[in-house]
Amino acid sequence: MPNGGQPTIVSIAARAGVSIASVSRVLNGQGARRDTVERVRRAAAELGYVPNAVARSLKDGRTRQLTFAMPDIGNPVYVAMVRAIQAVTKAAGYRLLLHSTDAVAEDELAVLHSLGDRTSDGLILCPIRITDEHIEALTTAAGPVVVIGSLPDGVPVDSVRADSVAGSAMAVAHLFRTGRRRIAFINGPSDTVPGRNRDLGYRTALTACGLPHDEALVVHTDFGIDSGAAAVRRLLPARPDALFCANDQLALGAAHALLARGVRIPEDIAVAGMDDSALAQAGWPPLTSVDLGSSTRGRRAAELLLDRLEARGGTGTAPPPRTTTAPPRLVVRASTAPATDSPVTRTA
Amino acid sequence: MPNGGQPTIVSIAARAGVSIASVSRVLNGQGARRDTVERVRRAAAELGYVPNAVARSLKDGRTRQLTFAMPDIGNPVYVAMVRAIQAVTKAAGYRLLLHSTDAVAEDELAVLHSLGDRTSDGLILCPIRITDEHIEALTTAAGPVVVIGSLPDGVPVDSVRADSVAGSAMAVAHLFRTGRRRIAFINGPSDTVPGRNRDLGYRTALTACGLPHDEALVVHTDFGIDSGAAAVRRLLPARPDALFCANDQLALGAAHALLARGVRIPEDIAVAGMDDSALAQAGWPPLTSVDLGSSTRGRRAAELLLDRLEARGGTGTAPPPRTTTAPPRLVVRASTAPATDSPVTRTA
DNA sequence: GTGAAAGCGCTAACAA
DNA sequence: TTGTTAGCGCTTTCAC
To answer: Region (Disordered) spans which residues (chains A, B) (predicted)?
Structure first.
């Protein structure tokens, strides 16, 4: 047995004394004589038959599998996305293939190309950066793709983006409203799209609040809890009364560094993070954070993709690419409660 | 074109003016005349050919896909496993199919049965509980399975387990060594294997330390940060000087509840958690935690599974099932630093 | 209502 | 070295 002993429609047909066509029909709920149905059903049950999904896929050209490719499954943001995507795909009867690109662009391109191997019916891609090669690969992709991230105009692909400009601005405005006037910013790398957007939101909000922009209050670093702590050491001489951090891990590291030197949160310095991951809630005091809608983006991306898959058999022309933006949401927690002592004494 | 316009070996053969067999050979690195090789290569490149993995799978009976099924991808423990598994499978050239069972036993059984559809070559299953049906399904599984969890003897399946008995005992012994004498225990549900094992470890360690076992110091609850906080309220009247929690989320919730009522950690009450997830590090003070080796277990499970897959073509008889136990590791952080005031005054 | 047969895309045995 | 062909397991005409 070249098959490993697994029953196939052939074994069932033999056992039931019918043709394989009848087996197929019965098993797919098509009409057949009562007697035939019964014999096939029984034979299948006795043999413990499970249809071979690979053969079926080859036949009808779809696998009922979807791929999600993201930089790192260790990051809470992507975990939230996986979770949301998983929920949608499962409900729709699709399996989910997970691919960690390790934030390597070539890996992302490889995933894009591998769409051609028909292993999955579609792809949700979360690229770290969009290069010309990405655009080329997206344009010529062998199947439907949804990008989670910001795409230049004209790329014929659905996308779901976060509004980190608005999100950053929300956080800064909130800190201002709670009486903070020297709002420092711990940002991620400045050469990434998210880094630039957060920076833009920060500056915009400062201006809107009528606050000066002080370079001494801004630090660029990489993400990660230790980086947050290190950044604090560099910022303290500038006497900030609030810390806005580009993600929760930075915020957490910053908070720890502050507490370790006896700085009170939020009485002396308020701290706000971004992503509203489990870490924000876990912090002490619990951290105010801006939810950029990872979950929403994941869900939406999955819905868009499924929608493309449905639409396939329909009208000849594919609908134009759609772009959704997930609105940010400020989650206020104890780490940014208004300072009890007069903020006026702190003003620069 | 029933195919969606994708090039196949037929299109390449036509373009290169050779037979499909030649195309296959060239593309699979078999010998051919220089001229033939070149023409096939070029045709394939021009057409942007990508081999159809489904067709290939049907041919050789393997998909190079592995499935990982666990209760909930939102849980840090499973995230750690996914990450480790992903790393191993990726290196071995396998794709990873993720399946969230939502902690529903029927879903676990369904996954087990669906191994028969040949969608993946093997399965790593992380069951919440092992029922007789599980054992039945595991015994008759259509492909290799590795279970992460404790399996009764005689089930012909590889497994990787955590040693939560030893892990719990380590935590308790550590608390004892740092001067604690009234060590409370916030455990998960008592009707689960992990719950029972942690309880056993707790009791064993108490006895080993010569401490009495006080029912008033033990609370059973479900996992989750809120449950931890609620448990603290129930425990405080019993005047504990240490809290051992069955996972990090409970510990975090407990810590928050303590801090909120002005109890100092670790001066007044020490807190230790379990799993050593990112949350433990995120807590304030950073939480001592017992690493039960989620990462190690994931990696090991993947290795065992791959090993089975390799072994397949080998000797007729399959090697006997193997069981690995991941050793627990105590990660000491600030939340259990020795109390500064004499522990003697606290003794019951 | 049922069976024979073609074909999805690929690999490999066999012939030439 | 190359081409023809069978076959992986299934669905689906097309005859009967």
So the answer is: 310-348
